[in-house]
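Deliverable D2.4 — example input (structure tokens):
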């Protein structure tokens, strides 16, 4: 029903009058005005622009307003600042550091695509150094952490149950399936891409998954039957490709690989540039197979999937949530060195009758906290009830209850 224009800030032209290379906003406007004809009927496509200008300026991630297109095209949508590329919700304090952007979504995000997980953010997730400041509240292993980070009930409650805009989830995130960057058609730089994706094995693959008979079939046919051997070789490949830099050359890599294997096995196979091409393609296609979401349907937690479905239905039933917060609404946080909590109160804009209202509280990271919404929002909690709560959350009373990292709930009037 619509179209997303990737890298809209890349459409530029040389303006002879100003003598400058400028963004071609007229061209973007023409994109939005194209009509599609089907069976004698016409429609105008729903237009979404990924536009991060002033990219490629070095400070673009912090300086971009993500509003340039929608100010000129009020019916269009843009990707918001948290659905763009550089999301790392696996790290401690991520949501606290993104507080400014979250506040912008509440103020003027009605025409932003919101959320936290897309094909770019989930690709960057496994690029994080495993020794970084990981939020281990999300899981005991790196694969568990990344699955919970991008399918996080607290985050979902915030974007589907409270914030303006149009929420979006990446299918691999909600299916808790792996994801990485694939390139199986490049005979020259395909191996370089493989080397850059080395941490995919740390973040997305447990040894038992590699041992599964249906996983990494092509690599096993190349006699790479051990997960630890693959990790060892990938670590060497990443370090070597990085050190080569601009001198990257497959023939040179083949010679270095031959020397490396000679130190590891008594009878190393003959390595050529073609050997490396075959390996790179096999690795990428094995990863591609492993990232297919149909592999993971049977392993999903029914409680989590029911929660996600109920949350989407709640959003459909409350379309007014897509509008910006009004001056009468509230949104705030509790932030310190050990925890980050978001909470707020919204009312449906209406000119008559009793407006619908919703309260949200989400634990976005850190140690558990005792929630007292009566004090925080000045509410009589006897007049409120739970509309939706994160899976497994049990409440004895709304006057005071404890939330852990990743938990949250929505309240509505009795």
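Example output (designed residues):
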């Amino acid at each position: 029903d619509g179209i997303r224009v990737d890298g809209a800030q890349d459409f530029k032209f040389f303006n002879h009058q100003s003598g400058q290379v400028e963004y071609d906003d007229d061209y973007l406007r023409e994109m939005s005005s194209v009509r599609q004809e089907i069976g004698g009927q016409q429609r105008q496509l729903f237009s979404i622009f990924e536009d991060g200008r002033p990219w490629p300026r070095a400070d673009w991630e912090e300086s971009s307003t993500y509003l340039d297109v929608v100010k000129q095209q009020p019916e269009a949508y843009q990707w918001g600042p948290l659905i763009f590329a550089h999301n790392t919700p696996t790290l401690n304090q991520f949501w606290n550091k993104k507080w400014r952007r979250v506040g912008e979504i509440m103020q003027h995000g009605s025409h932003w695509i919101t959320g936290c997980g897309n094909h770019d953010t989930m690709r960057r997730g496994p690029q994080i150094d495993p020794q970084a400041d990981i939020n281990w509240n999300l899981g005991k292993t790196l694969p568990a952490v990344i699955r919970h980070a991008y399918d996080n009930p607290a985050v979902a409650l915030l974007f589907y149950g409270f914030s303006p805009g149009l929420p979006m989830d990446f299918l691999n995130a909600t299916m808790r399936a792996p994801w990485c960057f694939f390139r199986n058609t490049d005979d020259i730089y395909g191996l370089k891409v493989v080397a850059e994706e080395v941490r995919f094995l740390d973040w997305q693959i447990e040894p038992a998954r590699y041992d599964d008979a249906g996983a990494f079939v092509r690599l096993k046919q190349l006699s790479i039957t051990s997960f630890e051997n693959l990790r060892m070789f990938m670590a060497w490949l990443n370090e070597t490709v990085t050190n080569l830099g601009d001198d990257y050359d497959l023939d040179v890599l083949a010679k270095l690989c031959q020397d490396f294997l000679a130190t590891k096995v008594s009878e190393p196979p003959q390595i050529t540039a073609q050997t490396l091409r075959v390996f790179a393609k096999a690795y990428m296609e094995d990863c591609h197979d492993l990232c297919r979401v149909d592999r993971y349907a049977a392993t999903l937690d029914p409680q989590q999937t029911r929660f996600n479905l109920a949350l989407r239905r709640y959003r459909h039933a409350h379309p007014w949530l897509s509008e910006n917060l009004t001056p009468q609404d509230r949104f705030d946080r509790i932030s310190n060195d050990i925890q980050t909590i978001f909470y707020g109160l919204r009312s449906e804009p209406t000119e008559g009758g009793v407006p619908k209202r919703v309260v949200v509280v989400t634990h976005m990271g850190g140690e558990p906290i005792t929630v007292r919404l009566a004090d925080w929002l000045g509410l009589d909690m006897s007049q409120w009830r739970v509309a939706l709560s994160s899976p497994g959350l049990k409440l004895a009373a709304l006057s005071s209850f404890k939330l852990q990292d990743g938990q949250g709930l929505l309240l509505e009037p009795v």
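The chain has a mean pLDDT of 95.
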